[in-house]
Design goal:
The protein is α+β, with helices and mostly antiparallel strands. Helix content is 31%, strand content 26%. It has one domain (36-176, 201-273). The strands form four sheets. Strands 6, 7, 9, 11 and 12 form a five-stranded antiparallel sheet that branches. The chain has a four-stranded antiparallel sheet with strand order 2-3-5-10. Strands 1-4 form a two-stranded antiparallel ribbon. Helix 1 packs parallel to helix 5 (187-215). Mean pLDDT is 79; it is low at 8-32 and 155-192.
């Protein structure tokens, strides 16, 4: 059909010439965005989000660092960072052997070890919630969490005096409102700027990876007798978690603590259902 349609041939050849540019933009969109901040913010430090205890141990969730929220050290982070405090009130050393988050759908989410794994887990969460017709927005729904820690009350869904970022989950997938314009921009400009962007983004990613390795706590995590230790665990984005489940081994026995977060983390990362 194209043999008798010069216009179609022009469109087809034009698309073929632009295809590498479009692919290049997609590549840039997928790898851009996250970087270590020059001036990280500090998380609030007042009331805990959740506490669980037994005869030997107390586990406390102090804060969850979400994308561009209080306490973040990375711009556009594609994960959640849980700040835990673990107290061994016994006379015997123990080891935290397993920690997982149970999200609002009851899915068990385990800690990630690196940036790529965390991003992959967050994308899987998006797919699960899309299948259930539930919209996910990374970094939103933090007002309840902030109110719990700051000891304030919600007014119109907001917490007075606490700056909270509300960022669309689309940016997690490298899609922004300017994406369409970028695809239709001049190809020459993209080709010239692109390599520098790729180099910069890879450098930023290496820094982010190194920082994650510096910060994250490894399991099994020891807590010596009579000690209080802080742990930082990175999880894929987990909407509105119900519980944090912590297992520990002490001597020959294994115990489990369940931190109830159904209320303090209610609505975290959740938007309205699709079509609303």
């Amino acid at each position: 059909m194209n043999a008798h349609n010069p216009g179609a041939r022009r469109i087809s050849s034009g698309y073929c010439r632009r295809a590498p540019v479009i692919s290049f933009v997609l590549l840039l969109a997928g790898c851009a965005g996250t970087k270590v901040l020059d001036e990280p913010t500090l998380p609030p430090d007042r009331n805990p989000l959740a506490v669980a205890r037994d005869r030997a141990t107390t586990a406390t969730l102090d804060w969850v660092i979400v994308r561009d929220g209080p306490g973040t050290w990375a711009k556009n982070a594609d994960w959640d960072q849980y700040l835990l405090r673990l107290e061994n009130r016994s006379t015997t050393d123990l080891r935290i052997t397993e920690v997982y988050v149970e999200d609002s759908m009851g899915t068990k989410v385990f800690p990630g070890r690196d940036r790529k794994g965390l991003i992959a887990g967050s994308k899987q969460a998006l797919d699960r919630y899309q299948d259930a017709d539930i919209k996910v927005k990374a970094g939103t729904g933090t007002a309840v969490m902030a109110a719990t820690v700051m000891g304030t009350t919600l007014v119109g869904g907001s917490v007075v005096g606490v700056g909270l970022a509300y960022t669309s989950f689309a940016s997690l997938l490298g899609i922004s409102t300017s994406f369409g314009a970028a695809v239709t921009a001049a190809g020459a400009g993209l080709v010239l700027v692109g390599p520098a962007m790729v180099i910069r983004n890879r450098r930023n990613q290496r820094k982010v990876d190194a920082r994650i390795q510096d910060i994250r706590s490894r399991l099994p995590f020891p807590v010596e007798a009579g000690m209080v230790k802080r742990a930082a665990l990175f999880f894929p984005i987990s909407p509105s978690p119900r519980h944090i489940v912590i297992s520990y081994r002490q001597g020959e026995s294994t115990q489990t603590l369940r931190l109830e977060t159904r209320e303090s983390l209610a609505g975290l990362h959740l938007g309205r259902a699709s079509g609303q």
